[in-house]
Write a structure and sequence with these properties.
It is a single chain. The chain has ten helices and no strands. By secondary structure, the chain is mainly α. It has one domain. Helix 5 runs antiparallel to helix 6. It is globular, with a radius of gyration of 17 Å.
C-alpha cells in the first residue's frame, strides 16, 4: 500500500513539474511589461535570446534567470523536502521541467528551446558540468556571435564531461535525453548553419 501511494505521488510530482516547466516566462513577461507578444517578434521564440534581441538585456536576463530557476528550484525543493523520491523519479522530474518548457501545455505544446531550464536542472544534478557548459557557451558565442552555436557547443562539452567523469545512471539518462531534446529544438538553426545562412 505504501509503495502504491509513493508511486502515485511520484507520478503527480512529475506531472506537476511538466506543468510548472510549461510556464511561458517570455510570453508572460513581454505581454505584461510591454503589451506585446514576443512570439510575434524577432525569431518568434519565447526564450531569453529572442527576448534580449527584441526588448534588450534587462528583459532577456530576467527571462533567463526565471527559466533557469524554473529548472533548478523544483529539483532542489524535491531533494530537500521529499528525500523518499528515487533518483530515477528525480531525473524524470527534471526531464518533465524541460519538456514542459519546450512543449508548453499553455501554448498548444509549443515553447522555447530549453537551454535555460536545462541549465538549471544541470546546475542541480552536475554543478561542475553546468559551469563547464556555461564557459564553453560563452566562448563559442563570443567567437561566432550566434547563440545556437554556443548552446550546441555547451552540449558537446557536457558529453565530454560525462566521458571523463562518472555520473549515476539517472543523471546520465537525464543529460542524454535533454541533449537530444535541445538539439531537436535547434534543428532549424542547425539547417541554417549548414547552409551558411
Amino acid at each position: 500500500m505504501y509503495k502504491k501511494v509513493v508511486n502515485i505521488l511520484d507520478f503527480i510530482i512529475v506531472l506537476a513539474c511538466y506543468l510548472l516547466g510549461g510556464f511561458p516566462t517570455g510570453v508572460a513577461l513581454t505581454k505584461r511589461k510591454y503589451g506585446l507578444d514576443v512570439r510575434d517578434m524577432g525569431s518568434g521564440n519565447i526564450g531569453a535570446t529572442n527576448v534580449t534581441r527584441v526588448f534588450g538585456w534587462y528583459a532577456g536576463l530576467l527571462v533567463f534567470v526565471i527559466d533557469f530557476f524554473k529548472g533548478f528550484g523544483p529539483l532542489w525543493l524535491l531533494n530537500k523536502y521529499y528525500p523518499a523520491m528515487s533518483p530515477w523519479c528525480l531525473s524524470l522530474s527534471g526531464l518533465a521541467l524541460v519538456l514542459g518548457h519546450c512543449f508548453s501545455p499553455y501554448l498548444r505544446f509549443k515553447g522555447g528551446k530549453g537551454v535555460a531550464t536545462s541549465l538549471g536542472c544541470l546546475a542541480f544534478f552536475v554543478p561542475e558540468g553546468a559551469l563547464i557548459g556555461i564557459g564553453v557557451y560563452a566562448i563559442a558565442l563570443a567567437v561566432s556571435k550566434i547563440s545556437a552555436v554556443g548552446s550546441l557547443a555547451g552540449i558537446v562539452s557536457l558529453w565530454l564531461y560525462m566521458v571523463f567523469v562518472s555520473v549515476p545512471r539517472p543523471i546520465g539518462f537525464f543529460v542524454v535525453v535533454v541533449s537530444i531534446v535541445v538539439i531537436f529544438r535547434h534543428h532549424q538553426n542547425i539547417k541554417r548553419l549548414i547552409k551558411g545562412s
